[in-house]
Specification:
Keywords: Calcium, Metal-binding, tRNA processing. The protein has helices at 2-5, 27-43; strands at residues 16-23, 48-59, 64-73, 87-98, 101-109. It is of the alpha+beta class.
């Protein structure tokens, strides 16, 4: 998602961190809320863009997650502007778990 927001993701440095928490009713809604939290901290002041995300806690039975994003404040003079991500799209979201190989399919609204 963040790679859409800047055309040169290599310009994002890990100068600071931001923590998020999300919960859902099932795995799909948890994924939706997880991505939506990161989209919110990018869209709201101070416009944090993550380069790396570390999962701090993951309760897959109760569908709760805590994560820390490492990155910096988005600055148009440093980070080439890419496509604006307006929202996470819940429609057609998919999570696959095949023999510990996890795959996600998410459409973002641009």
């Amino acid at each position: 998602m963040f790679n859409y927001m800047t055309t040169d993701y290599d310009t994002v440095q890990m100068k600071m961190s931001a923590d998020i928490e999300a919960e859902g009713l099932d795995m799909l809604s948890l994924l939706y809320h997880f991505l939506d939290e990161f989209l919110f901290i990018f869209s709201a002041e101070p416009n944090f863009i993550a380069r790396k995300v570390k999962i701090l806690e993951f309760d897959k039975e109760n569908f709760k997650i805590k994560a820390r994003g490492f990155g910096e404040i988005f600055d148009i003079s440093v980070h080439p502007q890419g496509t604006e991500v307006k929202a996470i799209t819940y429609s057609n979201m998919q999570v696959y778990d095949n023999e510990n190989q996890h795959e996600l399919f998410v459409i973002v609204d641009i």
